[in-house]
């Protein structure tokens, strides 16, 4: 279920009808940037699950998380993109500066995740993030990438791989849902 109690929220709902998305956009002035990124994707679906579950075969799943340090206003977005069999299609960590809150850091993680997917040419995606009430157990791989960003000073990108802590967690996710 999504924040608005709909099973799936298409682009039109998120951009034009979703009061939750509007609150994010109006508070942070990211509405235009999000709308531009979403217009390059075909039908992102926002949803929340108790643990990571692979997407349907025709979609990729983007998980994002943010690490925020209020003392210096620095945040790092952790992004992981996986396919229907759990294989990592891409991972990224992107830094942002002069960030004022953890809410803003999480919103930036959403924007950075959609931007990364778009840059890789992925158009059919499901997005999971803190705003879709995904618990840590369903977002631990993205969290590992975001946490790594605290130790890094540069943005990093991986194609069909991820940093080793994230890979280990992705393997554990795979074991959890793979049939015996």
From TrEMBL:
Which InterPro entries does the UniProt record give?
Answer: RNase_H-like_dom_plant, RNase_H-like_EbsB-rel, RNaseH_domain
Judging by the UniProt lineage, the source's domain of life is Eukaryota
Ranges where the RNase H type-1 domain occurs: 63-129
Coiled-coil residues: none
Any one Pfam family here would be RVT_3
What is the official name of this protein in its record? RNase H type-1 domain-containing protein
Q: What is the lineage of its organism?
A: Eukaryota, Viridiplantae, Streptophyta, Embryophyta, Tracheophyta
């Amino acid at each position: 279920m999504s924040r608005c109690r709909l099973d799936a929220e298409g682009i039109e709902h998120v951009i034009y009808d979703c009061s939750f998305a509007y609150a994010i956009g109006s508070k942070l002035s990211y509405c235009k940037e999000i709308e531009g990124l979403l217009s390059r994707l075909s039908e992102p679906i926002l949803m929340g699950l108790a643990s990571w579950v692979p997407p349907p075969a025709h979609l990729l799943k983007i998980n994002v998380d943010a690490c925020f340090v209020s003392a210096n206003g620095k945040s790092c977005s952790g992004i992981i993109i996986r396919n229907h069999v759990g294989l990592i299609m891409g991972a990224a960590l992107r830094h942002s500066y002069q960030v004022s809150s953890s809410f803003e850091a999480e919103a930036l993680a959403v924007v950075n995740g959609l931007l990364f997917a778009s840059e890789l040419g992925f158009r059919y995606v499901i997005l999971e993030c803190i705003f879709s009430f995904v618990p840590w157990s369903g977002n631990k791989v993205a969290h590992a990438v975001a946490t790594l960003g605290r130790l890094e000073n540069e943005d990093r990108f991986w194609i069909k791989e991820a940093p080793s802590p994230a890979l280990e967690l992705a393997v554990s996710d795979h074991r959890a849902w793979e049939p015996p």
